[in-house]
Design goal:
The chain has a six-stranded antiparallel beta sheet. The longest helix is centred in the N-terminal third of the chain and has 51 residues, at 9-59. Helix content is 37%, strand content 18%. It is elongated. With 175 residues, it is an alpha+beta fold.
Length: 175
C-alpha cells in the first residue's frame, strides 16, 4: 500500500477553525486598541489647539482668540513665505486645521464679548468620525485649558460647530 502525502480535509478544517477562533478573540481587542489610540490623539490635538489659541491671543491681542481652526493653521500645505499672519497663524498643522485627524472631527470658534468685536473666549470640540469604530468619547476645552470629555452615549459623530462653553463645562474633567 502506498503512503499518502498531504493533509486530509478534516485536518485542514480543524486548522481553519482554530484560525477563526483566534481571529474572533483578537479583532475586538485590535479595534479597542485603535479606539484608545484615536482618543489619545484627540486629547493631544485638543491640547495643541488650546496652546495655539493662547499663542494666537498673545500674538494678536487686538483680535483676541482665533475665530476658527483655519486661522490657527498655515492656510495651505506650508506657512506663507512672508511669515504668519492673522488669518494664517501657522500654529497648528494643516491636517488639524482642516478639521479631521486620526478618526476625529474637530471644530473651534472664538466667541465675541459683550463689549465689541474682541474674541474674549473660545471653545474647541472633538467628536469621533464613526461612533464605536474610530472613537467613543467626545472631548472639549475652553479658555481655561482644561480638557473635558463626554461618554457620548448618544453616539454623536459630528463636531461641525464647537459646543457652547457652558456645555463644555458640564463635561467630566479628563484626569
Amino acid at each position: 500500500m502506498r503512503k499518502q502525502k498531504g493533509f486530509s480535509l478534516i485536518e485542514l478544517l480543524i486548522v481553519v477553525a482554530i484560525i477563526l477562533i483566534i481571529a474572533a478573540i483578537a479583532i475586538p481587542n485590535l479595534l479597542r486598541a485603535r479606539i484608545a489610540a484615536n482618543e489619545s490623539s484627540a486629547v493631544a490635538s485638543v491640547r495643541t489647539i488650546n496652546t495655539a489659541e493662547v499663542t494666537y491671543l498673545t500674538a494678536y491681542p487686538t483680535v483676541g482668540y482665533a475665530a476658527n481652526l483655519v486661522s490657527l493653521g498655515p492656510g495651505a500645505v506650508t506657512c506663507p513665505a512672508t511669515g504668519p499672519v492673522q488669518a494664517k497663524a501657522c500654529l497648528i498643522d494643516n491636517t488639524l486645521a482642516g478639521g479631521t485627524k486620526s478618526g476625529y472631527n474637530y471644530a473651534a470658534a472664538g466667541v465675541v464679548g459683550a463689549t465689541g468685536t474682541l474674541l474674549v473666549t473660545y471653545s474647541v470640540g472633538a467628536a469621533p468620525l464613526t461612533f464605536n469604530q474610530t472613537g467613543v468619547r467626545m472631548f472639549c476645552a475652553i479658555e481655561d485649558g482644561v480638557v473635558r470629555f463626554d461618554p457620548n452615549t448618544s453616539g454623536v459623530t459630528v463636531a461641525a460647530t464647537p459646543m457652547a462653553p457652558a456645555t463644555c463645562t458640564g463635561y467630566t474633567v479628563l484626569q
